[in-house]
Amino acid sequence: MSSLTEKDRPIVQLLLTAGTCPRCILRFCCVGSQVLYRHPHKDLMKHLQEFLKSSQEKEDTVCLDVADPPCKRIRLEDREEGAQDQNHNGAVPQLPEADSGNAAMDSSAVKVCNVCLGILQEFCEADFVKKVCQKVNSADYQFTSFVFSVSLPPQLSVRERAAWLGVKQEMRNLGLPLAKDDIVQLKEAYKWIIHPQLSEELGVPADGKSLFEVSVVFAHPETDEECHFLATACPDCFKPAKNKQSVFTRMAVIKALEKIKEEDFLKHFPCPPSSPKKLCDALEIQCNNGAVFVAGRYNKYSRNLPQTPWIIDGERKLESSVEELISEHLMAEFKADSFNFSSSGREDVDVRTLGNGRPFAIELVNPRRIHFTAEEMKRLQQAINDSSDKIQVRDLQLVTREAIGRMKEGEEEKTKTYSALIWTDRAIQREDIAFLDDIKELKLDQKTPLRVLHRRPLAVRCRLIHTMRSEYIDEHHFRLHLKTQAGTYIKEFVHGDFGRTKPNIGSLLNRTADILELDVESVDVDWPPTLAD
Known about the structure:
- The chain is of the alpha+beta class.
- Among the domains are: 115-226 and 269-288, no CATH class; 292-410, Alpha-Beta Plaits; 416-523, Alpha-Beta Plaits.
- Helix content is 32%, strand content 24%.
- Helix 12 packs across helix 13.
- The two termini are 61 Å apart.
- Belongs to the pseudouridine synthase Pus10 family.
- Residues 293-524 form the Pus10-like C-terminal domain.
- It is an enzyme of class 5 (isomerase).
């Protein structure tokens, strides 16, 4: 049972006279019934006027029968010390009554609320709900639920404080106590009203955990400058920040309102606030789907293909990349705005990736389509593989954001297997390289290679060569199979990088060595799960 009691009479009278809408009056009377706020504006106005005109006993109430769970509240400020939630003793002071009849209701219908600036008026009506839903439907998203968010003008917090101080002042003048309750937050009341309407129109439930967000951004240019006096009173609260067009953000204003003294606030702002001429503007109605993550393994068969776009000083060096060959198909099918590519390590442009391939994951940002069957993912994988002979993808699947962490963990912890074609300046025989097969757990000190020094910090990294196996080809060539710790620079282990990697193949063989070809044969990360063909 949510109700107005006799103690609410002066609050209703003051705010109604000041130009406050019925729903905001219910908020200031701490009415927590969700269903009550959903009643039409005219019905609520009629009930408030009947409440003011009633001559019932002080403990009687005028209410609409509804039952709701407890509401979420917001405390504006601590009320009068020692005040108790009780009925008034003695006679109720005579207060001027609101105008009666249709004229009063017609007037209230066109008058913009001095507190919510019309958000709990026009923007709760069916026409606005339909406008929001038309925007959602035209954007062509897949979703099974939604979360609704609202961005309010920061000056609403100022007006809310002014209205509350006006109520407090009036009650003090009348010698009436204040209840230790909290007013209902505007955003909360708005969602109580609009959630059921959106759910009915869209055909899906509202869910606070939904990944599909419908958001509305409100603005009120007429009252934009109402926050500015706070910058003089509390300059520490308003500091320029990146990506913020104005210092008067909602959080900055709230922080300043917490700091400013009541008497200073009253000097600068009328309490209750005056009514504006115009309604708020709904600047933006936006939709956004939470990111979808796709993982798999890729093989790279070209020695002229970078993993990511190779662009130097704005100039593209090669026409494509592994990232682009995979992502262009995913972007088209998921209808996403953008993507982020990550993988378990990376290979150089001239290095092939063979075997089971390298694990990768792609985050698809704001996708319109999110539901894919296993068969559809298989067809998408085939489309990627048919589009190029430079790469192949396997085990393509939808994964969670949390699962991608397993790929990154394995990047540093697991082993990798390589095959290197090596050249030596002096002739070699089979017996000259046979000893390499017997070396186990060879410790290397690798100073940051010269070729990556422009993008990696200078450091000496300790790495392990777990095993090596040599294959003699001719007097100047042999192939070396290596199993190494992740993060080992193989090219530098072969040629020594001017002594920056010690030991190296050149120093072990006591001759100059260089690497002609390098292949990644396996990346031993057990992710993503292998799928049946």
